[in-house]
Amino acid sequence: MEFSLPLRVYIEDTDAGGIVYYVNYLKFMERARTEFMRAQSFGKDYIFNRDLMFVVHDVALTYRAAARLDDALEATAALIRLAGASMVFRQCVRRAGEVLVEGEITIACVDRAGVSPRRIPREIRDVLAAQVVD
Asked: 20 to 30 A from 74, CA-CA: which of 1, 4, 34, 48?
């Protein structure tokens, strides 16, 4: 299942020419992943109360076209792999169905105190396993 989050491009997202600054697509994707996890009942409070965090480990993106000031966009997140201590999302940002940016983001589960790798807790892994797409 692909999760989709509607977004709007604001002036703060753009450069002087009114084009979305490249790093802001990562912010849009982060919001989509966060809302995907919240939709699975794993919001920030749930995660922090288990003394863990999910952090970006690897990013591979392809930029295809630019978004502009006031564009209506959607950022998507589809979980494509789930391992012991990590997960991989296929994500994109679209405008009216046109893919602007797409790629894969690897997320690692870490211990909150020491920021060291740890296994994804079973209760989270069991729910996420049902969300993995091919």
From this structure: 48
51 is catalytic: no
Catalytic residue among 13, 15, 58, 134: 15
Residue 118: closest CA among 90, 85, 92: 85
Tell me whether strands 86-95 and 98-111 are parallel, antiparallel or unpaired: antiparallel
Taking only the tens place, the pLDDT of each residue in 89-127 is: 999 999 999 999 999 999 999 999 889 999 999 999 999
Average pLDDT score, the chain: 96
